[in-house]
Amino acid sequence: MIEFRAVTKRFDDGTIAVNNLDLVVEAGTITVFVGPSGCGKTTSLRMVNRMIDPSSGTILVDGKDILSVDPPMLRRGIGYVIQQAGLFPHRTVLDNVATVPLLSGWSRSKARGRAAELLELVGLPAELGKRYPVQLSGGQQQRVGVARALAADPPVLLMDEPFSAVDPVVREGLQDELLRLQAELDKTIVFVTHDIDEAVRIGEKVAVFREGGILAQYDRPAELLARPADDFVAHFVGKDRGYRSLSFVDASGVEVGAVPLVQVSEAVEPSGEWRLAVDDRRHPRGWLAPGTTVDGPLVEDVLKPGGSLFEVGQSIRGALDAALSSPSGLGVAVDAEGAVVGAVTATQVLAVIEGLRESRG
């Protein structure tokens, strides 16, 4: 657990970066600090590992005042991931990951063995261990940065805008990877971002900071979107917060109906309805438009892109997005293996959303 008790940081020029912060980060959770530039979120993070010392107040990690611990020793027990990974360019990937274990007195063979295990854990092939950072993509570098931070198995992991320098597709993949790792490792993670979408996607709790280093609201993502504390928070989380809050409502109330199917590589007759093409594992491949004539076996070149999919049991936002993005108006539901279960319409999903709204009064 990390606890901030009346913590203030005032710089020499009089600027107050963090103002009387009281906040508890529960053990084994991901807590996200978010807010506009200059709001004190990164300063708050960097005070935890004493990259910056507080001007007043107390920060406790597992009940111990951090000011009572030698800074280098404190940092060896806290993983730290920064933007663009901050890897040593003259060291191989494997030696980058092994850095903290070596500093902690591990033998080189033991440290490298641990590094190899972590590369696999973060989804990187073993052969990348011999390369240098410049030979990696941005997303690969960030994965190495996470592996390095985990090398000595610290209970606490600090992440300062680690994914902001990569493109949106890679960024979403890294977010998924972080959530997967957390499910396995159960670390106490403090994550800084300026992106509210990233904050509500990965955070179990989100701390919104306003300028002047003031904590505006500290809450679970669903509560933050549904009930902003004030106009600042409402403006910061965005006008579409109602739609985004659907990510925290499961789609169990949406009844999945049958969907007409055709098989890729088999002959099909013309039809006046949209039909979903699947492969031999019932994975969706696209839509066959009404009236389409196919000479010979069905090939994917004649299919319309299928829009997004939603997995049964996931959020109602996913169900609505699948229906709205589908050329047929039918949102495709799949199981955990990606096989088609059925489909829903936007009208069905909206009816369930309206029912939920009325039940809440």
UniProtKB/TrEMBL annotation:
Pfam families xref list: ABC_tran (PF00005)
Tagged with keyword S-adenosyl-L-methionine: no
Gene Ontology MF terms: ABC-type quaternary ammonium compound transporting activity; ATP binding; ATP hydrolysis activity
Keywords: ATP-binding, Nucleotide-binding, Transport
Record's keyword annotation contains Transport: yes
SUPFAM superfamilies registered for this protein in UniProt: P-loop containing nucleoside triphosphate hydrolases (SSF52540)
EC number, UniProt record: 7.6.2.9
ABC transporter domain sequence ranges: 2-237
Signal peptide as annotated in the record: none
Enzyme class per UniProt: translocase
Family from the record: Belongs to the ABC transporter superfamily.
Name of the featured protein: ABC-type quaternary amine transporter
Organism: Umezawaea tangerina
